[in-house]
């Protein structure tokens, strides 16, 4: 209800006001949980025309997924000082858990993943599981030039789909059935996790940071 949303909004402002000069809290309404998928897409669609030079996409529990946390601090410092180049770092995952889908089936489903890929990127083709690699937990930094590679309409369409219950139903062959496990795990958003780099023009297999020249 409105009172609860106001209380949450006030609490978030108190926390983040210590970390930034300006804080704006936006709520995204999902029919079923989509978490970072709709949160990130909402920002990309809403701020398409006034995108920052660099945008950090982070979870509230970022320290649990970014090790060492100094990596985030150093990237923040490089952005603030103007020493980070779009050419040198066109996209950067900040988390530490690398997902090579050739080695692991985590975040891949033989029915749902190809269906999700075709829905997001169009066409009748979806890459094989072995062709995709990225990082878990969807926390990254991207420059404006890469965020604008896709039109605003792409982000709006993806946002509308993830915010709708159809994003669950279309990935499950049983019809309009959503299990407790799928809802708790936010299945559509989870399956998309290791593909975010593709949205911003990176190759299917994102190399591990220490192996990326």
UniProtKB/TrEMBL annotation:
Highest taxon of the lineage: Eukaryota
Pfam families documented for this protein: DUF3431
Membrane spanning stretches: none
PANTHER family the record matches: EXPRESSED PROTEIN (PTHR37490), PTHR37490:SF2
Record-given protein name: Protein xylosyltransferase
């Amino acid at each position: 209800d409105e009172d609860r949303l106001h209380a949450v909004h006030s609490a978030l402002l108190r926390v983040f006001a210590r970390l930034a000069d300006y804080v704006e809290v936006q709520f995204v309404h999902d029919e079923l949980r989509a978490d970072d998928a709709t949160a990130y897409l909402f920002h990309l669609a809403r701020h398409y025309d006034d995108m920052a030079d660099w945008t950090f996409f982070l979870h509230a529990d970022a320290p649990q997924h970014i090790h060492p946390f100094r990596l985030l601090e150093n990237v923040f410092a490089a952005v603030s000082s103007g020493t980070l180049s779009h050419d040198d770092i066109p996209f950067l995952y900040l988390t530490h858990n690398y997902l090579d889908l050739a080695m692991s089936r985590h975040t891949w489903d033989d029915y749902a993943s190809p269906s999700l890929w075709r829905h997001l990127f169009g066409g009748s083709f979806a890459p094989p599981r072995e062709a995709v690699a990225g990082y878990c937990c969807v926390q990254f930094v991207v420059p404006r030039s890469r965020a604008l590679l896709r039109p605003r309409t792409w982000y709006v369409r993806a946002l509308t789909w993830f915010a709708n219950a159809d994003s669950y139903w279309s990935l499950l062959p049983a019809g309009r059935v959503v299990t407790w496990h799928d809802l708790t795990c936010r299945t559509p958003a989870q399956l998309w996790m290791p593909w975010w780099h593709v949205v911003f023009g990176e190759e299917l297999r994102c190399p591990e940071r220490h192996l990326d020249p």
